[in-house]
Records
---
Amino acid sequence: MQNENKLDKLFQKLVDNTISKKELDCLTELVNNSDLDIIQNEIWAKHWEKAKKGNLPFKKRKNQDSKILLQKILYKIEDIESKKKIRTFVPSNKIKYWSAIAATLLLLAGIYFFNQKNTELPTTPIAIQHNPNSEAITLQLDNGTIETISDNGKRKITTTSGNLIASQQGNSLQYTGAETQNELVYNTLHIPYGRQFDLVLSDGTKVKMNSGSSIRYPVNFLAGEERKVFLKGEAYFDVAKDKAHPFIVNADQMNIRVLGTQFNLSYYPEDEDISTVLVEGAVVLYKEGADLKTNSASQLVPGQSAEWNKISNTMTIKEVDTDLYTAWIDGYLVFKASPFYSIRTKLERHFNITIEDKSGRLENQIYTATFRDETIIEILEAFKEDTPFEFIQEGSKIIILNKNAN
């Protein structure tokens, strides 16, 4: 009963828009430990009647927006997101109560979403939840539903009203851009280790996704606004030219801004560097939140790479052979004077395996090699010719041993 009284008071503060951050945290914890039916039917019901008569911003939301917001706040409360479970919490006849709860919780937590008259683009990096060790290519829709994409499949992706927004043909997913929208709706494509996939965005931008990568992008870009997507992993972008709508790729701390160009971007969270290699056109790199009118941005010309070190917070720009960075698009693995520890990481991503070096001899060995259709066994046999070692395979794990190990 004491908790219910406290919930009642805190919900009233939500309606009045007078709740503090500390009280909001307390409310979230109480919701987590309370009977949601009691909250809905006994506590929130009376506050909803007051709230819907007021002039709070969440009144502008559509039901579909509120359902999405609701799912997100409940995922956070019950830690469902981290467990990779998808549940439906909102019966259609109870949407109005839970829409208000979700909208006000998120509103007062400082999370603002889009309404029909006023849209704002995300300005901070978006966390992309993804398990690259999964063997399935998956597509997460705007409502939280996760669908599996087969390599050779054919399918159509539609809105709830039946309008076509994208179609799959084999190893490619293409968005139509046919449906006019006045708010951003996001999909997220996840590519596991050992796989690659092609994506064509609604503006015609082509994205080649490398293994262990994820990209979050709008189903349709908005007229008069930037075209912004969020990448984790590695991808090659062939950006459709549109001077009125700059294209921006966010990779953790960095933004890469272009109008129409081709470049390779690599950002794996476990790597120290965020690497951008420009093949054609021009790009501007700047830290998230930086003012482009100052000298805080760096521009690349074709044939240059920019390495942003996340630890030292520094950027290095240099001339490079772009083919070394883009050969993966055509199925090649190219290593030029590369240490084995770097090669090992790329092999693990490419073949969806783990490699453990128990010999203690290979990590800093330098190799130059090119592979295409070779198996992981054939590649290791090639390395053995330079530095003798033995290895055993246990399922998806390879263990490198000393030459004379038993």
---
Amino acid sequence: MTPTNSSSSQCTINSMSNLFNYEIPEGLYQVPDHLLDLRPDNDVDHDLLHPRPITDEKNVWFFWHSGFTQMHTYGQRTVRAYHRRFSKLGWVIRVVDCEPESPLHIGRFLDFHDPGTFPKAFREGTIGGDYAAQHYSDLVRWPLLLRHGGVYADVGMIQIGDLDRLWNETIGNPESPYEVISYDKSLSNYFLASNRNNALFEHCHRLLLALWGADGGKTSTEGMHADPLLKGVPLMGSDTMTFTENGRVYSPDEVKYMLTDYIIQGQATKMVLGLVDDEDGWDGPKYCREHVYAIDFLVGSQLINELTSWNGPEQFRLMSLPLPKEEEEETADQKKAKEIIVNCLTRSFGFKLATGLILRVYGDTLSSLWRKHVGSDIVPGTYAHWLRHATANWNQKNIPPPLEFEVTEPIKRGPLLREA
């Protein structure tokens, strides 16, 4: 399991699909070269910056406020890997932004000035708070899917499984009942997929716009957890979650309010999933059971966290280790790192890298440490590089099974935009 040495100090994960002799775990296979884009990064970047016109729904959407060229390098590698694996299967990868002169400005894909598409603060560029960039991103994903269809993924969402096959067997198959793909029964917003004009996402977006439009128009999500339109939706977090920052201890309730405001889009989704509105014929629980392909959240996208007790520095340390050479005996740490890689590659559909509010609660994550230590995710011969190589060149033989939705009581009965 020894990687081949490279003389290039700028070695990338994609110079040749068979450049490294990394072990391919059971259940994966090497994608044939003719189905991969193995060109140099500069050529791939040209395609990402000048994507083909939209002709169908096989789009993978990303958002980075200042554009792809200003993205952290480890994020750029994630985006390139999508292109390398799926562009020859008909997918077009698009990193939209808010740069006025950019060919990928959000206004080239959506009506930037439409109040039915974006709230006032988005249109006027006045979203504030510590997590403004995340909220701009939250507000583009449903409109993009509603208008154009496809997949919306966070830049921190590394793809492992066969996205093309899952799409073709579900949303892309007219005979399939499935209309939405995501993680977890509450639909994790870092990975959403649908055709155009999806009814679930249309309801979700209308509710989110109403939350942002309250009191003449919000400029941040602070306090949105208490909006009457969300009455009955449980707050995020737990009764034991707390953290200390600058000498101040945040109570579990404070953490709940903070988390819920931060992921307010998730609260809107939960309300719609639990809503029965006879006036417009919407039955959220029934829709979930019949039309949502939900992948297990923890195994499907958070497995490294489960295997390391959500310890970001430990993840970074293990991923930065070199694999043992042929004459070397595997150490306990190398064995643990291999266990993480093999489990993630064989059991997970994706690999979610987290930043944002989680840094305040848990401290550094693998993502924040890759950001601080530029290039640490692609040092040849390390476990991080093994992961990067795999996600750009290999595929899983099977697709993940969907979770089963139970019959549940609705959270709310009545109109979406009327208080219960």
---
Amino acid sequence: MDSEGFMQTFQSELKCSICMNYFIDPVTIDCGHSFCRPCLCLCWEEEQTPKSCPECRTISEKSDFQTNIVLKRLASLARQARAPHIISSEEQICGTHGEAKGLFCAVDKTLLCGTCSECPEHAAHSHSPVQWAAEECRETLLKRMGPLWKMNREMQDNLNQETNKIQSLENYVTLRKVMIKLQYQRIHLFLQKEEQFHLETLEKEAKETLQELKESVFRMTRQKETLKEKYRMLTEMCHSADMELLQDLGNVLEMTELVQMQNPQPVNPEFTCWPVTGMLDMLNNFRVENVLNQKMYIRNVRLSEDNASVTFEDEPHGASRQPQSERFAAWGAQAFTSGRKYWEVDVTQNSDWILGVCKDVWTSDTDISIDSEGAFFLFSMKVNDHYTLSTNSPPLIQYVKRPLGRVGVFLDYDNGTVSFYDVCKGSLIYSSLPSSFSSPLKPYLFLSSL
């Protein structure tokens, strides 16, 4: 082999088999083959694990290798040795002096010929042969490439994590759906049992109350007959002779007093109002505040016997008001025409009250009038030392205990229902049957203090 052939063979051994250029930052892997570090990194970036040699396909156990210093120096010398033979293009010839641009100005970052480097504008600058400057530039680039590749690997790790999260998230969502369904199934089962308990309790209380009412009717019927008989007897005595009347007077009066003392008292039915689990939490999702923002003081209230209409007479101008007997009506300026709305009213300090929604409020200088045809009210009124709850749509007595704290009102306009709740107990007082609302509805409240 002649010297030229030997040199070509020697130079080919200093080339990377991936890029077919002289090595830059060469590394020798487990099998003994060498490659440019950047070429090997990019090659293995595309491969799936395990990593193998690009030439012999031998599996490499590790991926981090030290730079082959000797091979790097030889490759650098080989590049510099070929440099004088490739300076031939017009761009590499100085247009002014016709000389090859063999020097590099480190300050201006430009290629110069020997004559240009001696010019005043470059004479004070640092110059170096193109081959040396290029090698230094390669080292600079390699230093920049290291952090870039490290960031690339970190980004790949993050990418792998994000990719894994996709499958993990899909699995979690599937599991979460099952968990939620099971939880709601438990809640539904619990609420079904609670509902069954409430219905059974109501049925039991209804039977007991009906029995009490039947027994009360029987006692009152018998007492009525007794009273009627005593009345008839007293009538006959009034027609008896004077001596006979006076002789039996003491016994008759004592017997009459005894009969009057045994007068049976009426039964006031009152069912237990059980709380409904989670109901108030649900209602508070539709809560609105400050719905009653118009107010008028009231002197008198006139309520028809069937609750068909309510008239509120205004407090006369200049009339004095006692705080303990204060009465006022309040209603909303805004009318609701859709959706679900929930609000609460505190009736703790009030004996009589009316609350709910109405189609409109007719006001004048002297009174307020409401047509119950477009109203859904819950009434609390004191009758014969006993408080009663009633509704007007339909007119119906509510046989549950009167709420003593806050009362909740829930308007479901779209489903056409109005419901009332005892907030302290978390229980239902009354809910109207679904209908169809055709007019805007305003919140309404009347309060009378104790």
---
Amino acid sequence: MPEPVPATPQLLRRVSAGAVLEFMRASGAVTVTDVMAATGLTRATTIAVCEDLVRRGWLLELENQREFGGYRKGRPARRFELNERAGVVLGMDIGYSKVTVVVSDLRGTTMARSSRPFQAGEVGSRERIAFIDGVAMAALRSAATDPGQVLAVCAGVAAPVDRHGEVVATQEFWGLFDLGLPPALKAARGWTVLLENDANLAALGDRWQGAAAGIDDVVVILASERLGSGIVEGGRLVHGTRGSAGELAYLNLVEGVGDTYGIAHLARTWAAEALATAAPTALRAFQPGRVEAEQVFAAAAQGDAVALGILDRLADRMARVIGTVATMLNPELVVIGGGVADSAHVLLAPISERLAGYTATPARVAVSPLGDSIVTVGAVRRALDYVEGNSLDLVLAAAATPA
């Protein structure tokens, strides 16, 4: 067991500053009493931390104002507010064929977003890093923000990432994301870059702003092209020894599943197979070979028998997947996330009906409202957590006062 870290005055200051900033992120103007109630800090410590954060540019102290139309004895309470534009963070979703970058202020509000398709081919790490950097700079320009304002970056990749931020490149596909991105962007831009598995970030994002908000035991399954999951247990993200907790390769061994293909991929594949037969279907109205999951769901909503059959197969398959997750991890909630989530609500009832047949501990099932933003939302949250935990070490380039 590792030795406990001694509670030095410096560590206590860092923890206290992080706690205050975390509270301020979700609050408007607050008093010292408000901060004390939220953080459990003493009045003297709260005042000292707030004053320190004001000097450093993280907080703004607002002018004292007495209650309008009334009179109250004594000095008005001091009020503080987060300086949300003191810096920005970047959330990145780095896929095989697309890169998305979001610029967020210190409250987690999106200021700009840039997303570009990428033709991977045989290009090397240097070209991929240059492409990612270009998307990031485009997002910053859209946000009218200087690169020097970036306090932290978090990038989600479709590969396991260990606790040290290293990609576990034990498979060829995972190795495509072992780019050396953190040192490259540190050298080029001076940015601190945190790497994380995309499904883990999806779990953080949905628990922050999605269907799992406030739930401590949840599994979020990215379900569009490939299946992958992020696990939150007891309020903490689970990584595993080498970052592979939540990997679903075992589905190759599960009867009725057999691989890790996701809802969008299978809907497209099964639609193409149906079109190769003589079966009458509304899907023929679309260009052969170009039927996407959204069109299958739309045809099913109109009562098309072929599309309804595909949805039935998808529901049964996802029930088996969620059944194994519920058996092994026993979460309160399983969330289906990713770009396909916008259409997947129709699967909830048939999945839930089948679950009891596949597990003795069925979980509640929901669809994330975050759509294809789920990874970048989690990346922003991870970057904000880093900023708040390291606020005493970060120097703000320009602590801009909001208008």
